[in-house]
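User: I'm putting together a small comparison set for a docking exercise, and I want a reference complex before I start. The sequence is below, and the ligand is BES. Could you produce the 3D structure with the ligand included, as structure tokens?
Assistant: Of course. I'll restate your input first, then give the structure tokens for the complex.
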Amino acid sequence: MQNIKQYVEQNKQRFLDELFDLLRFPSVSADPKYKPDVLETADYVAKKLSDAGADKVEVCQTAGYPIVYGEKIVDAAKPTVLVYGHYDVQPPDPLELWKTPPFEPTVRDGKIYARGACDDKGQFYMHVKAFELMMQNGGLPCNIKFMIEGEEEVGSSNLEIFVKENKQRLKADVVLISDTSMISMEHPSLETGLRGLSYLEVEVTGPNRDLHSGVYGGAVANPATILAKMIASLHDENNHITIPGFYDDVIDLTPDERNAINDAPYNEAEYMTDLGVDELWGEKGYTTFERTGTRPTLEVNGIWGGYIGEGAKTVLPSKASAKISMRLVPNQHSDKIRDLFTAHFEKIAPKSVKVKVTPHHGGEPVVTPTDSVAYQAAQKAITESFGKAPIPTRGGGSIPIVALFEAELGIKTVLMGFGLDSDALHSPNEKYDIYNYYKGIETIPLFHKYFAELSGS
Ligand code: BES
Ligand code: MN
Ligand code: MN
């Protein structure tokens, strides 16, 4: 441990500079205008993996953005850790809300502000630097494989083919991912589950053209009003989702499981202050952690229609649209939920409008084991580096490839994230604490050490 700390201390500034270089690439996968930048980012990641000592580094082409692969096999008898991360980021919009530009990383108050600082560049890069550290500092306790993709934020749609075509290359004993949150630095935690996702877009069309809202208003259904009503009806007065069959496959947690989740430290007042809200909202009968970690939800991610420019325009729009996504919990299936939503949304539409539902991406929920050697290794690593045992939590976010790795490769994942929910992922002023970055680089080698030890090699 002393050697680890020493190596981090001696290389602190370079570790930070390299992360800053990575953060300067605007690798926004959702917007084609950033394509050259996304491709350059993949090359940078590949170079950094090579520099750190990885063999067989390859920028693997897919139908979309490339997947960066690299490995170091030290001994076939040792266990193999497959590190997954993503070098793409969410769009930085709305730009005007950033205090400093999203792709010019800036330190304020010990925190790095930049798009991707936490999600996921700051987090996956810890693994690259921890790998360098192990190579320079006594060698690797386990074999290591890296798979860093560029389409996570847009649904990883080309990853499945890659995984299916590269089963042998990706063979490993565990997948290790840092792309989730901890409760806080005082309360280290390990996420033991992720929700699935079913994402759709709906369009409601009324008259064949935009109309004068005085001449026609009151006589013709306004698609914006109809859409608002339809969306509002998707939750009942207890904030349960009203889509028939939606909860059919949800498995209720046992009282013990619920207690464990509710044992995690949580300060409701702080939670509300951080978000600037006076009241929390959610499904009746469940606590905040249960709502975000163990219950399915439905959210409107965007809604538009009619005139949204400067000033006023008296128009009755011919169309209104929304992007809607549902987070799913274990035993729910994204395809089934997509179909249930579509059927219900079409059914509740009044005759005055036409509805078109277009599915986007989906992903399956997962629960990761807490009785595995790999989980125990993560527990030991965190306990040693934080001086406290990690609390198991269920994450509200989604990383669809976790279920895919399990289904295609039969490998389970350990979610060892070092971010915080308050790091403003996907929001303006995303940040990552420099402390967490170094702490992660210190903790990861311990995971490898204990995983090797506990695996009996
Ligand atoms: N890293 C996040 C997921 C996450 C964040 C999990 C915090 C747990 C805690 C990931 O990059 C992400 O944003 N995933 C998307 C899903 C994807 C299919 C677009 C999400 O959760 O919305
Ligand atoms: Mn992420
Ligand atoms: Mn993300």
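The chain has a mean pLDDT of 97. The longest helix spans residues 2-24.
User: Thanks, that's exactly what I needed.
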